[in-house]
Amino acid sequence: MRRAGLHRVLLALVGLLLFVLGGSVLAVGLGAAPPSWWVHTGPHDVLLTRAERTHWRGTGWWWPAVLATLAVLVLLALWWLTTVLRRRRLSEILIDTGDGESAVLRGRALESALAQAAVRQQGVAHAEIVLRGRRTKPTARIWLQLEPHVDPSTALNDFTTQALTDARESARLPSLPVEIRLRAVKHHAERVS
Fold this sequence. Notes:
The protein is α+β, with helices and mostly antiparallel strands. The chain has two domains: 2-85, no CATH class; 92-184, Cation efflux protein, cytoplasmic domain (Alpha-Beta Plaits, 2-Layer Sandwich), CATH 3.30.70.1350. Helix content is 47%, strand content 19%. It contains five helices and five strands; from the N terminus they run H-H-H-E-E-H-E-E-H-E. The chain has helices at residues 2-29, 50-54, 62-85, 107-120, 152-170; strands at 92-96, 102-106, 124-133, 138-146, 178-184. The strands form two sheets. A three-stranded mixed sheet has the order 3-4-5, with helices on one face.
């Protein structure tokens, strides 16, 4: 969650900076008086002067390097934008009803049912479930927070044989690959007398 929030904040800051710079260049181009420190002095000023454009003309590597760098920056920006805007969770799952039709199950409903089943299990303090993948072949990432006295292998076995199997069978999924991460609840040391 923090990572997605950081990406959105950075993307918003970059977008705001580009919007302000583009708007100010447009305003100067339309005739607004620029401040004394501004790069352009008026609407007929150019981005690069003839001297700046021809300064590196003798070296054959300059313009290809500039264009390649700009192309890489644009591709990285597009890649970053798609990773930020891409859905992280599976919103719905298509279930084969067996009669040639299909039903739709909301992803949040299955996540909630799995989390409630996990918390009802002895020794599990908290559970977080995230469904990913395709609508016909979902996968799940599961975080189980265990009580200090619980054996992790027992809790994992109970969860996979009961809650996970029940969810997979009730959703009529042929398989539900999962990645389960276990962590213990923080607790204070017990006093021995």
